[in-house]
Amino acid sequence: MTTAVSSELSAELRGFRRVQRLAYECAEAVAARLEPGVTEREAARMQRVWLRERGVRDWFHLPFAWFGDRTAFVNFRVPLQFFPTDRRLEPGMPFILDMAPVFGGCTADIGYSGSLGVNPVQDRLMADLEAHRELILREVRERRPLRGIYQDVDRLMDRQGYANRHRAYPFGVIAHKVDRVRARRFSPHLFGFGTRSLRGLAADALHGHREGWSPLWSPYRFSDHPPRPGLWAVEPHLGFRGTGAKFEEILVVTDSRDPVEGAFWLDDDLPHVRRWAEAK
User: Fold this and answer.
1) Which pTM value belongs to this model?
2) For labelling alongside 160, which of 7, 8, 66, 184 has CA 20 to 30 A away?
3) Longest dimension (CA), the chain
């Protein structure tokens, strides 16, 4: 838990926590405004406008929105299918809002799952995601190889009866490193991704390749190394019969030998964590 160390967070970590909370506030505000007939494109635009009104000018990636069976990436085969469409929201339909703003030089990448009205399947998926959050933190603290942790997440999903949907992301990633981005007046993006953030990730990939590590946490051999110190945006994504659910938040990994200080979630005051606490 981060509560034991939150009072001691460095100024830099407080900056990342601030932008992550801002992104989740956006997700909750937009989710409250969704109604039947709203399209994915409109929901993505609502996120973008809300954040721009609060000073966001750069992005790791622009906001996404997925409705219905698109929350489980059904029949997703090419990257363009991730971008928002004219799919309209209907009563009882699940949705996922996903955004990655850069603010004050700090990056967040979050995922928020919900439904328009009651959706028992997605409610169950969200409840079962708590075990994945606990497993990931425990095994990162044990300094197990990232690839091995990924495989353990897969095995837990199998036991729960779910499909791994983060495997549909490029390179099958369950997480990626995030870092500071130098603020500029002009913030270009390419195919929905901020060019400065992409350059930073590419530089990490090149540097890591030389040293035997990767900024992408995947099921492949290049992730067969212990957790690298830094900030990781982690997003386990469950799917079941056309319904998907996930969370995404920052995991802090340090070089401390103390397990609690060596890895911790940046913030425990997030919507999905509060939801699990209330359920108990």
Assistant:
1) 0.90
2) 66
3) 52
